[in-house]
Amino acid sequence: MTEKIPTPAEVPARLRAAAERAQEVDRVKRVRQRRRARRGARITTHITDETAAALAKLARPDVPTERKN
Fold first, then answer.
1. pLDDT value at position 37?
2. pTM surpassing 0.85?
């Protein structure tokens, strides 16, 4: 199913609506970034336990790592 071609009067309204949606998406993204930064969860939100253990091993190879289940 194809979308109908907008009339010349509809074009500015559609562009304005698209710009407003883009601004809202941008605002939400910034708010979430600030919230994550405040919680100190900048990296830890998407790192698994194995990755964290590997990074700890790289940072301090002399300290034994323990897995907590």
1. 77
2. no
